[in-house]
Each structure stands twice: as C-alpha cells, then as structure tokens.
Amino acid sequence: MNREQTSHHRKKGGAALKTTFAALGVLVLLGVVQAATAGTVGVGALSVDLRGSTTPTTSAPAGTPEPLLPPSTPAEPAPNAETKAVEGSWKQARGLLTAEITKVETVDGRIRLHLTAVNASTAKMDIPLTSITAKDDAGAEYAATPTSRWSGALAKGATTTGQIDLDDPRPATATTLTVTLSDIVGSLAPTGGAITVQNVPLP
Fold first, then answer.
1. Rounded-to-integer distance, Cα 156 and Cα 163, Å
2. Rounded to an integer, what distance in angstroms lies between the CA atom of residue 71 and that of residue 96?
3. What is the pTM of this model?
4. Which domains does the chain have, with CATH numbers?
5. Which terminus of the chain is less hemmed in, N or C, by CB atoms within 10 Å?
6. CA-CA distance, 111 to 84, in Å (whole number)?
7. Which parts of the chain have pLDDT scores under 70?
8. Among the listed residues 115, 108, 114, the one whose alpha carbon sits nearest the alpha carbon of residue 170
9. Which residue stretches does the UniProt record annotate as biased composition, category Pro residues (predicted)?
10. What torsion, rounded to 10 degrees, do the Cα atoms 40, 42, 44, 50 define?
C-alpha cells in the first residue's frame, strides 16, 4: 500500500468515527429529554423509571389494634314544654276602641294571650302594657310580664296586635278568663279609660 492509499483510509476512518460520536450525542440528548418529560430512560423492558414512588405506603403491623375514637357527646335534650292553645274571636267594643283576643295558649301552665286593639277614632290612644290584667273564674289574678310583645301606642285609625304573657301559672280548676285594659290615655278614649273582654276560654 502506497502513501496515498494509507492517507485515504485514515480519512475514511476519521469520518466514520465522527459520525459514530455524533449519533451517540443525539441518543444521549434524546435520553435527557425523555428523562425530563416522562421520567424514564430507555425503551420497553430496558427503560428505567427515574421518578420513583412519591407517596410511600405504610401499613400497621398485623395485630395492631385500631386507634380508639373519642366517644360522641349526646345532644342536649330539648325543653319539653307542654303547650295547649285555643283560637277564636273574643272581643269587646267600647266607644271607638275595640279589644279582641284571637288566641289563648298555656305554656307549662302559664297563660299567653294574642291581643288586637283597634282605634277607630281620629285621635291617638295609648294602652300601657302595665295596665293589662286578667282574672280567671277560680279567682286567680294575673298581670302582664315584661316578656310580652306589645306596642300600646295607637295612632288614629290604627290597629295593633301583640302577645301578652301573664305572670302566674293558672290553677287546674280555671276554665275562663276576664281580660281588662285600663288606664287608656287619649282624648277619645273610652269613658273611664278601660275596656273588658269576658268569658275568654282557657285551653
């Protein structure tokens, strides 16, 4: 082999080596891209998962008892209030004022009245809560309590409705009630400043 043939073989060998290194570089680059995106390197059965398990699973050894939960607290029992009621219309008109009781309740033996007052006059009237009293047929007397819901200010031609809670428990023998609205203030208030509703039944 002469000098020119030897040089020619060396050039061919160098070119093939460069091509091999270039191919290897491409494969390495593809492997890096694959690892970054998919988390694996290789193909098929020769692939390697680089991510590993991110959520390790732990299990209690056999025979380990389950942790005890705190016992549940029972709910507080609701108040067992006995309520009875009767509805109707028991009213009395005096002058230009009408008082009407539309419902009577007993809550644990205490009386509650649903009262409506109508002022048909052209002047204002006032019916104070403290002036509302009652008496039953057994002789027991009652007064309105501060827990009542009552607005006694009656403009001319106005109507007001409220809830009157009486203070003392009713006797078991009582069956009817007489309700009195007194100390009514106003230039056109009933004569004597009072009005009485009789024979109101108790439930």
1. 21
2. 65
3. 0.59
4. 3-42 (no CATH), 83-201 (2.60.40.1640)
5. N
6. 10
7. 1-81
8. 108
9. 67-77
10. -20
